[in-house]
Amino acid sequence: MLPRRDRNPGIPAVANITKRLIDALKPSPDGRDLFIWDGALKGFGLRMKSSGSASFIIQYRTAQGQTRRHAFAKLGTLTPDEARTKARRLLGEVADGGDPSSARQVAREALTIAEVCDLYLEAARAGLVVTNKKRVKADSTLAVDEGRIARHIVPLLGKRVANELAGRTDILQRFYDDVAAGKTSTTIKTKARGVARVTGGAPAAKRAVGLFGGIWTWAAKRGLVKGANPARGVEMIADQTSERVLSAPELAKLGAALREHETNNPMPVAALRLIALTGLRANEACGLRWREIDVATQCVRLESTKTGKSMRPIGKAAIGLLGALPRLHGDFVFPNRDGTGHADLKSALADLFDAAGLHDARAQVLRRTFASVAADEGYGDATIGEMLGHARRGVTARHYIRRPDSALVEAADKVAARISVAMTGSDGDVVELPSANRERRGR
Predict the structure, then answer these.
(1) Residues 264 and 342 in one domain
(2) CATH number of domain containing 50
(3) Mind listing the pLDDT tens digit for each residue in 380-436?
(4) How many Cα atoms occupy the beta-carbon half-sphere of 409 within 13 Å?
(5) Which residues in the chain come in under a pLDDT of 50?
(6) Reported pTM
(7) Which residue from 227, 197, 198, 232 is spatially nearest to 212, judged by alpha carbons?
(8) Can you tell me the distance from the alpha carbon of 422 to that of 260, in angstroms, rounded to the nearest whole number?
(9) Mind giving me the DSSP string for 278-316?
């Protein structure tokens, strides 16, 4: 019999484990693990933690006389009878000299990098992986992680036993060198565009090594890997700080390309214009939801960005652009085909830059151009940072719930108007954005 502190009131520490008994169990009030041992099969039991999670277990002595407990199934994955049958088999292995707990530890130590990555992604999708700012990873960030794992980490390292890489910086150095040299370059099929190019290169290699290091740290804290992080000490080429911005003539070329392709590709054209007029990150613009647009205060209130919730002032030119867009299915301004998410426009945006002859420019350059135009207008770093949503402690969350400063709205107006003129040659007409109530009345 177990000590009284391990019992539930009215439930003996030894009893036939049945569904009725399980349904009556509650966590121990003193916060300790609760154990119930089966009266029909010695060594078979149930352990409930203070959190309420429970597992079927066996308790046994090894050939060396050590007492061990082995949890072999989460409560709910097996019926009590199925768990008893499995426990009887495991205890039979013990009688033959086996050690199920030790065997599981050996199996855990034999996890491959691919298996560790799968466990990491499973946890991340469940909201159990946080960034270095202690925030749950955004869906957009997780999608990037999945791509880097599938296209770089698994092809080059996936079959290796994880613990054999502990402290092996030389292996991660070769991994970095191979990705930087383009050995993982390929063309893959996608749902949205048919094909996508994976080019590799030094920037991709640096980010893949960084992700690997983060996965190792996450896994080490959970006992999945042991030893020094092999990503530490890898020599990597420093990122080149790009100063590329678009000049007025280049903005005009881009505007002409957008007008030329507007009929055939209205969604990516509108998204690229929105990025140009607001300085939003590409994923923020493409993932914008109608409910995040606040016309009355002339801002967007983004629910999820790389810096958390964020409020951004936007100019009248951007409000006019959004007001002219058709409201399709779902809540996304740029929805995918079935409205369950936003469209993947990355390749389409790149094609528009190429069509304008701006092969060395992408969406990030428009964000930098927005900042450059703001600086030309005489605005300081703090104002520009607010318009772009740069993280500052205590600022982002506070700004999410209040009205934007009138000076910020004025700044956004001036910058958007200047960029609009450069791209179109006119300020354009401002179109009122329909309110949610008016749209419901019109349905």
Answers:
(1) yes
(2) 3.30.160.390
(3) 998 999 899 875 544 444 444 456 788 899 999 999 999 999 998 654 443 344 443
(4) 13
(5) 1-7, 192-193, 393-401, 427-443
(6) 0.56
(7) 232
(8) 16
(9) H---HHHHHT-BGGGEETTTTEEEES--TTSSEEEE--H
